[in-house]
Design a protein that fits this description.
Layout (H helix, E strand, L loop, with lengths): L4 H10 L14 E3 L6 H9 L4 E4 L6 H4 L7 E6 L2 H11 L5 E4 L13 E7 L6 H7 E12 L5 H8 L9 H10 L3 E14 L2 H10 L13 H14 L2 E13 L7
Parallel strand pairs: 2-3, 2-5, 3-4, 5-6
Antiparallel strand pairs: 1-7, 6-8, 7-8
Helix pairs in contact: 1-8
Length: about 250
Amino acid sequence: MRRTYDDLVHEAAGVSVDGWDFSWLDGRATEERPSWGYARLLGERLATVRSALDIQTGGGEILAGVPTLPPVTVATESWPPNLRLAASRLRRRGAWVVADDEEPRLPFVSGAFDLVTSRHPVETWWKEIARVLRPGGSYLSQQVGPRSVFELAEFFLGPLDGSARGIEQARREAESAGLEVLDLRSERLRMEFRDIGAVVYFLRKVIWIVPGFSVERHQERLRALHDRIENEGPFVAHSARFLIEARKPDGQAA
């Protein structure tokens, strides 16, 4: 028996959205993964260094899944619920978790890390990243690209610009901070939402897709989308991701 709109929405509105684990969506929504395999690349890089910093670690899910952590591993996070999750996951691995706000400056001395990483940062603080990297150190990051999930955002908000987060802008900003870009590639990836509960959960968790989202505020559009999914099948959107790896030149001062 098909579940009603009210049942699906009530369930999704009540479940916890702490952390960066999307397993609640299993069987209800899908998203293709980038071909480069960020978690694999992260594990490879971490295995070769002695000190690393993971910025905006979320609940520490990605870092905690890496086979080997460097002797000095530090993660930062600003949102208290995620900070608690990250601490519980990463401290048992010997990593330090530091509460940090979402404004630079990073609370570390210059030249402290061989490797700096971040997955889906809200903003990339290129000058600060360059400062805390030792000469010869690298930055590895998977980021959200332009017009990511815009099919869903525009269903609720109408036409959007979406010109920000271009990969060439990332290249320019990295180079302006004195870093040498070693790798830069992007992909658009198919997403499917199979019921309205999946949409509600996703928008509660990924808050920048529809800023200020709530079930009450967006009830009319939610009901319209529920009817569309019921009549036409899964709602299809596309996420945008890019990978960037940059290196601080050996001769550059810490």
